[in-house]
Description:
By secondary structure, the chain is an alpha+beta fold. The protein is 31% helix and 40% strand.
Amino acid sequence: VLAALGSALGSRVGHQLSDGKSGSDGWVTARAQGMSISLPRTFDVTTDPADYVEALELAGPDDADGLVQAIERFPDFFALAGVDNELATRASVVVMREPSIGVSLDEIADLTIEAMEESGVLEVTGESETSVGTGGYAAVRISSRGQWPESPRFRSELYLIDGGAEIWTVEFVADRDQYATVSPTFERSIAS
């Protein structure tokens, strides 16, 4: 699924990270809607929700309909998505934002975990409070694993980040068997 999604996204948008701030180490900072995240230059990234929806519809998992509907209904919540086709495994990142509505980060985490478990695709394997980014933003990290029908097993790290007036959701996904290879990339990205 990630390979097909990466191919579909790459054919739609190419390497759009060149618009960001590039480092000499092959990493670049992508900026969208008041946030930034550093990713390897090998990521094909889009900040256009229509591009991501089209890529999901072409190559996404069968159960991506909920994500497609959410992005189509609230396109302003979408910040960016990307897929790395050059890592040892396929890896993806999706960043979304939502207005803070007076609900605590812990309450949002509880609702998120409940929805993940009810999906029938994800098994939550851990939850922890942490801080992320150069600003030390309060966050909750939710680890999960799952398998889409007819696809490899995957592992996901979801961060719910308290941005004050907004809650940012950053999710990293990779094939479960290759996750150890890409987790340092994800850790570096979330720390940026």
